[in-house]
Amino acid sequence: QVQLVESGGGLVQAGDSLRLSCAASGDTLSRYTMGWFRQAPGKDREFVAAITWGAGKIYYGDSVKGRFTISRDNHKNMAFLEMNSLNVEDTAVYYCAATTLQELWSLWFEYPYWGQGTQVTVFS
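RESULT FIELD:
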């Protein structure tokens, strides 16, 4: 099974950018749909973005469309989340996740594999 490790979180000012990385081991990432989710204190886990295996279709949550970009590098066995124009509402722990499904990519409970999360804090 695949193991995931996120990195790249930090403390940034509103308007800044961050790039999160998700490194996979134990299996080839090309077999998985990769998703990014986030969870702020006291809130439910929120879908951020997903990129399917195979056709590489991409989907975004409404709150990040036009600001965030998901990508993957199957040769490096990594996935990425480029985050631009960050605002304080983006503050959360960000998780990468993997599933063999190509559908239901926005539902966190359809992802059996998760990283430990990386904190992103945006101040105004």
